[in-house]
Amino acid sequence: MKKTFIGPQLRQLRRAHKQTQAQMSKVLGVSPAYVNLLENNQRSLSVQMLMALSDKYAIDWRELVQDPSSNVLAELRSVLQDPIFHDTPDLQELRAAVDHAPGLVENFLQVYRTHRTTLDKVLRQGRERVPENLVSSSPETIIHDFFRNHGNHFPELERAAEKIRAEQPCAPDDVYAMLKDRLRARHGVEVRIRTVEDMSEALRIFDRETATVLLSQALDYPNRTFQLAHVLCLLEADEILKGLVSDSGITSSTGLARCQVELANYFASAVLMPYADVLATAQATKYDVDRIAAAFSVSFEQVCHRLTTLQRRNAKGVPFFFLRIDKAGNVTKRFNSTTFTLAEFGGACPVWNIHTSFRTPGVILPQFVELPEGERFFTISRTSDRPVFSRESQDRRLALALGCEFRFVDEIGYAQSFNLDREDLFSQIGINCHLCPRQACSQRAHQPLLVELPISPDRRGNTRYES
């Protein structure tokens, strides 16, 4: 059995109750020395002690054993790679900070998030007047951080989805019919397909008053199935959604609705691709997205999204990040279970071949990339077609990127044809030109904010920003 250590959580619990180790030991009926050993992770947690803590302090035992420190450590390491910081602490120092000063670390990360949001808004405002809400975090940022803080994995939604598939088992190509039947039999909800004109450019409408789900003819089979699973979440996992959303830290009504939509989408993916089955298929095919999509009768994009969620304790897949952009480079969707720092509003590096994929629709483009701070990743990029409403909307493609840290590359089939010892294997990319410190980059489009590039009227370099 795996040992459980709760040092930082126990220290926070004690401090929250304004107790010394001696006072806590009296409450629990143990010695102060034992409490000290637990806080310093020199003793593992016993079941008896776990129950005593839960009983004496009226807390859910799951809150104690859940260790968010790995996510915090990953975010802290990523933040400290920003060029504004110098002499980055080593991993041991960062672990000590997370373990012994979690409140300070969280406050530091919050300050950096505010800095990041403010900087981006300043960049977008240009010379225009700075708005009053400059430092407020956008709903997109809060939702992304909420999913990231949960490791992009929600066990409650996974269990609810598995319960449905266990109650009504069926083959992947029969899931649509199963969902229609369940909606009708258990909730009295009928499903109707309507023309594009009747839907007023909506793809799905759930009318609660008439107990009807209207689906547009513009949706293909995988997306029709996905939308029915989304509606089923609203009906059968509503309390789970409310509980998760209430803990998100979002206050605006628009942000709360957006968070609920993303969580329901998570549930829909879990229904279409049950955890154990999709993990086994992914590992057997070396994460071949097309083969996984074929096995579960889902789309390429749905598989990419699902692969980022396979982070169940003791049954983890490769931790991926997923990014979707439009032709202008705007980020329209992003999920992350890695340390990869994603640009919130786009403007991503043109050296990254997610942009090149628009020139080769439907073709998977693999690439090894390296960030300025030395982090290395393997990515694949491919276009995704959007539902066609008219002749004018036939070319509304988006580009997708799925990636993982280089250390997982042996598990990815798309990387097997590459010579990993080549010196020129990695493309040098950045988050965006404003923040990238690289010199002599032929693709630079902006002067970097935090680095002075050398420039002279007597020499013309690759770009007009440096000589």
TrEMBL record:
Which residue range or ranges hold the HTH cro/C1-type domain? 10-64
What InterPro entries does the database record attribute to this sequence? Answer: Cro/C1-type_HTH, HTH_RamB, IrrE_HExxH, Lambda_DNA-bd_dom_sf, ScfR_C, TransReg_Diox_bact_type
Superkingdom classification of source: Bacteria
Record keywords, A-Z: DNA-binding, Transcription, Transcription regulation
Cellular component aspect of the GO annotation: cytosol
Q: Name one GO molecular function term.
A: DNA binding
Q: Record keywords: Transcription included? A: yes
User: Which protein family is named in the record?
Assistant: Belongs to the short-chain fatty acyl-CoA assimilation regulator (ScfR) family.
Q: What is this protein called?
A: ImmA/IrrE family metallo-endopeptidase
The source organism is Boseongicola sp. SB0664_bin_43
For this protein's source organism, the top of the classification is:
Bacteria, Pseudomonadati, Pseudomonadota, Alphaproteobacteria, Rhodobacterales
